[in-house]
Amino acid sequence: MVLPERYTRPAIILHWLIAALMIVNFALGEFSEAFGDEYVRFMINAHKSTGITVLGLV
Q1: Which has the closest alpha carbon to 47: 16, 31, 17, 13?
Q2: In what helix (H) or strand (E) does residue 44 lie, and over which residues does it extend?
Q3: What is the pLDDT of residues 16-33, one digit of tens each?
Q4: Rounded to two decimals, what is the model's pTM?
Q5: 43: left (phi over 0), alpha (psi -120 to 50) or beta
Q6: N- or C-end of the chain: fewer Cβ atoms within 10 A?
Protein backbone atom coordinates (compact mmCIF):
# COMPACT_ATOMS: atom_id res chain seq x y z
CA MET A 1 0.00 0.00 0.00
CA VAL A 2 1.36 3.41 -0.96
CA LEU A 3 1.01 6.05 1.71
CA PRO A 4 -0.11 9.51 0.59
CA GLU A 5 2.59 12.17 0.47
CA ARG A 6 2.42 14.82 3.15
CA TYR A 7 4.25 17.96 4.00
CA THR A 8 6.81 17.59 6.74
CA ARG A 9 5.95 18.66 10.26
CA PRO A 10 8.33 21.69 10.16
CA ALA A 11 6.73 22.83 6.88
CA ILE A 12 3.25 22.60 8.40
CA ILE A 13 4.32 24.49 11.53
CA LEU A 14 6.04 27.17 9.46
CA HIS A 15 2.96 27.53 7.27
CA TRP A 16 0.63 28.10 10.22
CA LEU A 17 3.13 30.34 12.01
CA ILE A 18 3.34 32.61 8.97
CA ALA A 19 -0.46 32.57 8.58
CA ALA A 20 -0.93 33.59 12.22
CA LEU A 21 1.68 36.34 11.94
CA MET A 22 -0.01 37.68 8.80
CA ILE A 23 -3.33 37.91 10.66
CA VAL A 24 -1.65 39.66 13.60
CA ASN A 25 0.15 42.01 11.22
CA PHE A 26 -3.09 42.90 9.44
CA ALA A 27 -4.83 43.56 12.76
CA LEU A 28 -1.99 45.73 14.02
CA GLY A 29 -2.03 47.83 10.87
CA GLU A 30 -5.79 48.04 10.62
CA PHE A 31 -6.62 48.84 14.24
CA SER A 32 -3.64 50.98 15.25
CA GLU A 33 -5.61 54.19 14.70
CA ALA A 34 -8.48 52.98 16.91
CA PHE A 35 -6.34 53.18 20.04
CA GLY A 36 -5.09 56.24 21.84
CA ASP A 37 -2.02 58.16 20.77
CA GLU A 38 0.14 56.47 23.39
CA TYR A 39 -0.40 53.08 21.71
CA VAL A 40 -0.16 54.11 18.06
CA ARG A 41 3.65 54.25 17.98
CA PHE A 42 3.90 50.86 19.71
CA MET A 43 1.42 49.24 17.33
CA ILE A 44 3.11 50.66 14.23
CA ASN A 45 6.50 49.42 15.45
CA ALA A 46 5.00 45.99 16.21
CA HIS A 47 3.42 45.98 12.74
CA LYS A 48 6.80 46.68 11.13
CA SER A 49 8.58 44.08 13.26
CA THR A 50 6.00 41.42 12.47
CA GLY A 51 6.25 42.19 8.75
CA ILE A 52 10.03 41.88 8.80
CA THR A 53 9.74 38.60 10.72
CA VAL A 54 7.32 37.20 8.13
CA LEU A 55 9.64 38.34 5.34
CA GLY A 56 12.52 36.53 7.01
CA LEU A 57 10.50 33.34 7.46
CA VAL A 58 9.42 33.27 3.84
Answers
A1: 31
A2: helix 37-57
A3: 999 999 999 888 888 877
A4: 0.72
A5: alpha
A6: N
